[in-house]
Amino acid sequence: MRNKLFVLFFSFIFLAAALTGCGSNQAPEDNDDPAQEPKGKFSYAMSGLYKPFNYKDGGVLTGFDVEIGEEIAKRMGMEADPVTNPWETIIQGLKAGKYDAIIGSMAYTEERSEQVDFSRPYYRSGAQIFVSPDNDTIKDPEDLTGKVIGVVKSSTFRDVALKYTENDKVIGYDSDVIALQDLPTGRVDAVITDQMVGLVAMKNGLKIVDVGSPLWVDEMAIPVQKGNSQLLEQINAALEDMIMDGTYESISQKWFDRNILGE
């Protein structure tokens, strides 16, 4: 009986020591403000071919869209993770969960809103016709009839081009900038693209000219997966804060010398 009590006593002592040792190895509680620590990554997609909104410089993604995403991530307490995806499958990638959102200059349309949920607009711009300087045959939209028109694949610009010319005369490009660069070569008669993209290309020395007024004004917004109301609310709140405190204005002025939200 005494031996059994002896064994039980030392078994208890060993167990207590083991438990105490485990407790002493635990990391001390972090007393820092949890709001200061990133709460994970916020991944947002773009084509990476839409200068100056999103493009690669020395292999690193940069541009207006990239910086807007970085500021949104910061205000959500997350780490910014910009990624690229081909434009023609970018919504499918979002729906498949490859990234959290698209910050890639996507215009709101009713058709797209059936697949994804959109934030409030984060900038506004128009669809503009551009031609080479020596093209004196295209002076207004009606002159596009039967002409060869360059547009980005799977864009709303393609839809409007088809109103003026045949399907086989609408040339699809991966990048608006490459389409614009084809104007001086004569491969296309005109390019329909975002007004700001063309104007910046002109500012950077590309020999093209704009024709008339914008065909329409698009509201660019940030899509998230359908039903992800929590993320959408966070993005909208971050955008509102950026606009109110002047951060949005600063980013816009850096890239365009003006506020492209138009509010």
From TrEMBL:
Keyword annotations of the record: Signal
Residues annotated as signal peptide: 1-27
Keyword Signal annotated: yes
Xref: InterPro entries: SBP_3_CS, Solute-binding_3/MltF_N
Main location (coarse class): other
Keyword Signal listed: yes
The Solute-binding protein family 3/N-terminal domain, residue ranges: 41-259
A GO cellular component annotation in the UniProt record: cell envelope
Cell location: Cell envelope
Protein family membership: Belongs to the bacterial solute-binding protein 3 family.
Protein name from the UniProt record: ABC transporter substrate-binding protein
Taxonomic source organism: Desulforamulus aquiferis
The organism's taxonomic lineage, starting at the top: Bacteria, Bacillati, Bacillota, Clostridia, Eubacteriales
